[in-house]
């Protein structure tokens, strides 16, 4: 998991990341593949976008009032 976080957080060559973490390039590659595929498989559960005009306006209102972030409806971290 750490190899995937490192690769996605600060992209670089898998071999260099493997050396940094003490694993092989192929381990970094397999880890990234498995973690990303798992996230994609669960994306319908975890990622929700407003689907009606009312939900859209409510999302904008919440983001504006909580974070002073105008016109945002979702944020991806």
Q: Can you put this structure into words, describing what you see?
A:
By secondary structure, the protein is mainly alpha-helical. It folds into 2 domains: 1-44, no CATH class; 47-77, no CATH class. Helices cover 69% and strands 0% of the residues. It has 4 helices and no strands. It has helices at 2-9, 14-21, 25-46, 53-67. Helix 1 packs across helix 3 (25-46) and helix 2 crosses helix 3. The chain is elongated, with a radius of gyration of 18 Å. The relative contact order is 0.11.
Outline the secondary-structure elements.
Layout: H1 2-9, H2 14-21, H3 25-46, H4 53-67
**What profile does the largest beta sheet have?**
none
Multimer state: single chain
The total number of structural domains is 2
Low-confidence stretches: none
Question: Over the alpha carbons, how many angstroms does the gyration radius reach?
Answer: 18 Å
Helix fraction by DSSP (H/I, runs of at least 4):
55-70%
